[in-house]
Amino acid sequence: MKQMNYNKGTGKCLNWIISEEHFLPKFQGKCETIFCLGNGYMGLRSATEESYVGQVRNCFIAGTFNKSADNEVTELPNAADMIGLDIIIDGDRFSLERGTFSNYDRSLNLKTGELIRTFNWKNSDGKEFQFTFKRFVSLAERHTLVCHFQIKPINCQADIIVKSGINGQVSNSGAQHFEEGEKRVFDKEYIQMTQLTNQSRISFIHTSHHKISNNYSELNPRFELDRRKILTVFEAKLDDGQAFELTKVSNLFTSQDNDISSVNANDIQKFALEQLKIQSKKGYNQLLEENILAWEERWNFMDIKIESDNDFNQLAIRFAQYHLFIMTPKHDNRFGIGAKGLSGEGYKGHSFWDTEIFILPFFTYTFPEIAKSLLIYRHYILKSARMKAKENGYAGAMYPWESALSEDGEVTPVWGAIDIITGKATKIWSGFIEQHITADVAFAVWQYYMITDDHSFMEDYGYEIILDTGIFWASRLDWDKNSNSYHIKDIIGPDEYKEHINNDAFTNYMAKWCMENCLYYAEYLKKEQPEIYQRINEKIEIENYLATIKEKSGKLFLPAPRDEDLVIPQDDTYLNKPTINLSQYKSQKHVGSIFRDFNLDQINGMQVSKQASVVMLMYLLEHKFSHDIKEANFKYYEPKTLHDSSLSLSTHAIIAADINHLDLSYSLFQRAANIDLGPNMSTSDHGIHAASLGGIWQIIVNGYAGIRMVGGKLRISPNMPPEIKTLSFSINWKSSVLKIELDHQKIILSNLGEDNVQLDLMGTDVSLQKEIVHEYHYALSKTTIVEQNS
Amino acid sequence: MKQMNYNKGTGKCLNWIISEEHFLPKFQGKCETIFCLGNGYMGLRSATEESYVGQVRNCFIAGTFNKSADNEVTELPNAADMIGLDIIIDGDRFSLERGTFSNYDRSLNLKTGELIRTFNWKNSDGKEFQFTFKRFVSLAERHTLVCHFQIKPINCQADIIVKSGINGQVSNSGAQHFEEGEKRVFDKEYIQMTQLTNQSRISFIHTSHHKISNNYSELNPRFELDRRKILTVFEAKLDDGQAFELTKVSNLFTSQDNDISSVNANDIQKFALEQLKIQSKKGYNQLLEENILAWEERWNFMDIKIESDNDFNQLAIRFAQYHLFIMTPKHDNRFGIGAKGLSGEGYKGHSFWDTEIFILPFFTYTFPEIAKSLLIYRHYILKSARMKAKENGYAGAMYPWESALSEDGEVTPVWGAIDIITGKATKIWSGFIEQHITADVAFAVWQYYMITDDHSFMEDYGYEIILDTGIFWASRLDWDKNSNSYHIKDIIGPDEYKEHINNDAFTNYMAKWCMENCLYYAEYLKKEQPEIYQRINEKIEIENYLATIKEKSGKLFLPAPRDEDLVIPQDDTYLNKPTINLSQYKSQKHVGSIFRDFNLDQINGMQVSKQASVVMLMYLLEHKFSHDIKEANFKYYEPKTLHDSSLSLSTHAIIAADINHLDLSYSLFQRAANIDLGPNMSTSDHGIHAASLGGIWQIIVNGYAGIRMVGGKLRISPNMPPEIKTLSFSINWKSSVLKIELDHQKIILSNLGEDNVQLDLMGTDVSLQKEIVHEYHYALSKTTIVEQNS
Q1: Which residues contact A689 (CB under 8 A, 6 or more apart)?
Q2: N or C end of chain B: smaller count of CB under 10 Å?
Q3: ipTM of predicted complex
Q4: Cβ within 8 Å, pair B176-A171
């Protein structure tokens, strides 16, 4: 049975629409996630209006973290549901699991963020009805959520009861974050419910308005109250052919919002009601129009056009960008991006290195203002990072492995899945010893700076992060007498199947890079911007640490490529561990299948990796490694990597392209694109794979189009698999906007800005004034700059 | 479609079985409630194993009250589910809403407390399976819960996954009471999950064991962990005709239990595991046998045999007794009975006057030890009652309208349903001004004493309640200059449609009775048991209050029957209020329909009553009112009473019988019996109607058999409607057990005890030595005592 269709739209909608063509409850989790709506403030998982077993109704507001109990870590609380409808027809609750349905279609238009579901349904008495549900979360007005429901009897009449409202009887898998608050009806039209998070004391104010149009507009609703629930109830006798249409406009405000003037719940209640009165008068179509205009503005810049032998590729990149855009709290720099965006309870809304290493490049090249906001968040949580360093006996800023708000510190849960051997829950060590995040953040700051030239960001935020993380790394090193060098002991690198290891290659190289970068900018500031240096020094006493950082970074042990095969040891012991036949796990249907046979202790003892680690290192610090080293390490490590993290495939796809393994690269790209969009029904149950979506963008832009910032300089060097025919998109580079169009014969670069752009174009330094058309023949590696019109 | 069958059993099971003969999701709430299992310690709502939308999975442990948040009232927390099964067949979750089923039957055997569900089911591929589910909560070992699941493929093979375990992702309609605790697997067989209530700090320890029998016994399970959830997972390939059988034995302990020696969670975890190892070895059948023996012991005494023109009557009384028995925490006198027993979230497990006035007589006459435990509970919460009196500026003991534990005080919620006029939630005044509960408790103590002669109870508990409530009532009166008498102002009587009234007849009469009873026993104790008097006086200083009580009780205003029509004014203003045509509300399908048209303020202003009030008064203090007054008031008030409380019908049925309106009485009895058992599908969604079940017992025993304690003396005066042919049952009376057998021609009374029993038999004082056979002709009111064998 064909469940999904990726090429449904035609004309203006071509390759913009993802559709579900048949309803099967077991695909609920996936569809709730991939059809998720949002605007970065609000994330609304796309549960169906009517209820089904196993459904997860989630609505998250970015940054509203709360600890439901002392022994829980803080997480994004699941706000009251404003989507659900109880539809009772002739006394029976409507459900697609009963009766029969036809012409089913649920489609998300990525261009507009509108979700539409239509079908015909016959109940067990043979009465037939035409259903249409529509909804969107407004990008024009971020508090607003608009729904439309229509039912039309076909050659029959029926009694209908529709219950719709605000339902706070939801939780985060049983954890309840809210204390129940006031429930009100205003003007016999508007309903409002307030809830308060039990620890962080954030008020959530939900307000809804229902309007019946056309045929049944004289109906008066009644109102039902229950615990944490207020409903508007309509009862009608439906006439043959007479559609019953219900428009519901809702808004959601919290006392943490930065666009309201009061934190007092009563003030916000009044304000929300006033706003809703204005919004609800506009009606569905006008509100949708405003939303579409807001989306157009974004797509006009960020759209990437792909011609390839499979339209799925075009949709996959748009899908990635749509989700990256709706998950990102661009409105408020106090908050980061959750590892599942705002689309599910997975990872509790916490930010990981996923943001800086996987997602940020999309924003840095496309919407640098948003990238800046995300990096200011990392400045904002320096408080957490310093707290963590201190608690662990280190200096400087040690970023939490998982982070929430500035005051939260490390928020990684301590206990995970059950250990099949001991019968106890497994301890999650990442929050204690997975520390490369502190290098990743500093790297992202520097990358952002190199691409944008945003000096004021660096002065206000960036330098402080670079210097304070440098201080941390120097404090983190241990002197090793035997080797006469500094080591980093007891660590987890990106490959989380290796715990408590020493000298993880990725961590050591990145730590050294961090310290050197810190020293460089310290010297630079001292010389060029002494007042900035002074200001930062007063805060973090960098001056006192410089000598130590210099001494230690010079003596930090870096695992070198082995002479015999150029393989860089992932850590001190990895290469000495036994290998096992991994074929059954490499061909697994579901990630983590190895845990059915081994526990983490046992996996720790074998040459098997969860995800890119040395390969990731060769991507981030690519200028430090030769083509041969990259190839050798890719060939060594990839067969031992199960890609059990969704962060793994994109990096491998890029490096595979770099070393000309284009077939493998394309297949890894396809696998990455299928993590969320693919047919595997349960992969996305807990939410979208945010980092993987960022990785998909990187495969296209940084990988296949070959747009890279290397050592502060732009390099363009495409490596397109033959399946990709053409690429066309724009990026920001410092003060300019560059348009890139390429196929397998030529690259056209257009500079839409004022300033000339210096770049390395496939190994040749060029200065791009207005346009360069560059012809090349990939097989011959022959490149010629054809013309430059100025 | 016929949903329920009330006469399914044959032979030994005749009139013991209630069955659901077709599965319809809309009847879920009703069936979950009426099929509820339990033993007074544990109450397990009978949700089906597989999940459906709208299902309410409840498991309550008596007395484990918790306040989930500061702004909530304390309630019984919904413990983790140990019943649910996810059954996945060929990749699809099993659900009766999909595919087709036949031969459906779900039956609760009231005699054994075993619930069995069987059906055949065909999935959408046409594969057929035979299903059987069985379960019971053990009456022999109150912590133990036993389930059995069997599936057999018929002419097919299939892949099956069964997930079963302990699921704490439940809540009380969204309110979460538990902090998540430890989850463990022991011996790759036993799973255990601990949760802790967030305010009262009670540990709940859930432990389960799964065993596959016969064909698939070599299967090894795997274990899945999620938030608040631990599951045992079996995967099997089912062969044609080979049944897959799973037995699950679970137990549940809390740190509040009075039968374990430690309150430490670790100790209890170990103890629970040891106990489960013993219990699980016994297997389903042996555990069931032990449970059946425990039930037999109870039924041997409490069974009431009814011959009537409708077997439903026999079943209805057994149904009532079954539920009264399983809802009552007979094991622990710190806890009372919830208004919905342990069968649903309604009324939060709180105790009301329902216990003393409606339920207690069943226990007092049948299992006096249990009645005693329930009254000791009222002594135990004197702490709450004194706290409430003090907070309200009164003296003595003022019982909370709703009560939980001794330290909880008044626990009535303050806000209720929405006011259709103001749009705000309605304030619930009962916790403030519905005060007759304090008289009801004292009345029940006295009634228990008169029926049982339990002197030691009175000395240890009863006198103190009688005296301290007397003190309260005196302090509650206001002097009214105009009438030169004491009034009770600003009150709610039993008729809750009248708020803030003065001189509610029921309250005033009962208060006077209370004060007089207090004075009587104070004088009695002073004279006969001065050391008891002294002990109580040291506690409550009764001596200081006696003069005031005497003065005030003598001058308390009692609304007298009007000269013209003998109607007793329900309160100072009721009879002056306008009447409206109530016919549409009297014939309503669902209670409370009047609120669709009026708010409580408006209802307050009309002659319309929710429930028995003056009629109730004439039942409790029957010796104070003549037959004519009873008849006049019944005829006046019943037509104005909507019976919107389930407490109303039984009292009316009894008084109707008393005044010889047997047709009306029988029809009220039928309505009462149908409150839970009847076809109206949503009446019992929030739980069983505990008081109504007690009322059903009273209709039969106190009403139709006419067994009454009047002024301390036994009176037997049957008033059987013609539809009831014979009645046969036993009661305790003081130190004796009496057997009563009656039809419309004769009564046979047997005294199974040692002492002669003095009683009023239809107006004649008799002394029952061994047996009296009393013949009478109802129509002629001719009665003759025929013989007495000694």
Answers
A1: A340, A646, A675, A676, A683
A2: N
A3: 0.93
A4: yes
